[in-house]
Amino acid sequence: MPTFTSPAVANDSAIASRRTIGGGCVLLLLLLGPLFVCMPLNSDTALFDLQAERVLEGGVLYRDIVEPNLPGVVWIHLAIRPLVGWSSEAIRAVDLLILAGIVCLGMRTLPDGRTRSLFAFTAAVFYVCCNEWCHCQRDTWMLLPAMAAVLLRLRSGTDHPRQLKFAILEGTLWGCAFWIKPHVAVPALFVIAVDALHRRNRSRVIKDFAAVVAGGILAALPGIWWLIDNGAWPHFWEMMLEWNPEYLEAGRERQSPDRWLMMTYRFHPWWIVHLVAVPLAWRAIRTAITLRDRNASDRRVSLVAAVYVGWLLQAIVLQHAMDYIHAPPIVLGLLLISVWPWRLDLAPRRVATASFLCLTLLAAPILNLQRLAMWPRCWSEGSSTQVRATLAHGTFPAWQDLSRVVDFLREQRVSDGELTCLNVHSVHVFRELRVQPATRYWCTLILQDLFKRRAASIDAAVRQHTSRFIVTESIESELTNGGSPDDFPWNLPVVFEAGTYKVHATNVLQPGTEDDQTLSVRSSGSGERTEML
């Protein structure tokens, strides 16, 4: 005989469940929040800081510092850095707030409090436990306006009398995301196409699409004005038309089974989300196509499925096999699983969810004892060199050795235009010293690898510039097919060493000249030596 549960008991159970999950969110924030904020920045974020500071100092983006992408993320740094400061902790705290915004928007698509709380907790666990390359990145940040656009479409209904005004605003949100990364156009088109299947008034479909495009144009106008006013307009088009095709080609060459296998390992066990979400998305979209369901609940599920499928496809087909690119699809996959109208009993769903979360927590790198031991030091020291080195998930850079290089260059009073870095992860040196590179090339080897037809001109620009120091790193150089010790700049005198890092002096004079200056150089792991500068 089936048991009967009264509405009051069911409601009490739901409230208790929400409180449990809410308590878990608070505990997660207290335990992992300081560790997350004190993790090191990735090299991309350091580059965005460098580009933003170049513009704030009167420089011209694209002309004075190379950037092959649209300027949206640089604008975000230009907006928030003067407000929150230039520390790594500040930008990571902002990243956490952006994640909170994404989660809150996602929760608004869910039908009940228990599901909302569980989605928030699961998405937070996933993101906080990711490696630092997934944080403060364009792909996650553009998910915020994209989710706002999807929610606006859901809230406006299919035949609302003010539908066109909502569509223009939605297009503006998609346009803002487009400035950050144009790949967002794929999920946007998926959402619009799937939603067209739910329209009762077919004549409104074309008007709706035109209004969304109009909103995108409105979002484009302020950006175009900024590029013209800043003087970057012709250089922007040079990068987009002449440089970017080679950049995209180099990205496609980086797709390899080894990279995908490595990324699957780092995302373990979160890749399981796709095994569940992809079949659900297929069912939702197929139902929308074949049955033309107009139920509000079906529409909500199909639009979440559309943005998930569109985002996953553009990440796999159009972009590099990089961790940060594939973090947003997992968040969207979790949202689709949460919004799905499951017909399973609550008990097996709870067991499956709890088992998966336990597996994720056991596999989370941030929860190992060595990293957890940094919790009190995060409060007392912030993101110090030792804290960064311990909390870092990746191999590059070697934070303690890099810190010694920064200290040495700071002692030499290096200023703007006096430093060149050969390797991509050495871009942190510029950020830590708050100086601009000697040329528009913020590093050398990676740009020569991405833009092979311009490798000779990049090398010539570095050779001809009168910078004081060039920083090299041996392991990265080998990975990017760097030259031999007899090649430039490895043949220049080494005035400082720290681990695999070397600082080469470019203006060493022969002893006995009247301009001699004696520089005492500390070399990590060796005695003191002297070079004549």
How does this model look, in words?
The protein has 533 residues and is mostly helical. It has two domains: 21-365, no CATH class; 399-532, no CATH class. The chain is built from 24 helices and six strands. It has helices at residues 7-38, 43-56, 72-84, 88-107, 113-129, 138-141, 143-156, 163-180, 185-196, 203-230, 233-253, 257-266, 272-290, 296-318, 327-339, 346-363, 369-372, 375-381, 385-391, 399-411, 427-433, 445-450, 455-464, 474-479; strands at residues 419-421, 469-473, 494-498, 501-505, 518-521, 529-532. The strands form two sheets. A four-stranded mixed beta sheet has the order 1-2-4-3. The protein has a two-stranded antiparallel ribbon with strand order 5-6. A hairpin with a 7-residue loop joins strand 5 and strand 6. Helix 4 (88-107) packs antiparallel against helix 5, helix 14 runs antiparallel to helix 15 (327-339) and helix 20 crosses helix 21 (427-433). The longest helix is centred in the first third of the chain and has 32 residues, at 7-38. The termini are far apart. Mean pLDDT is 87; it is low at 1-10, 509-520 and 524-533.
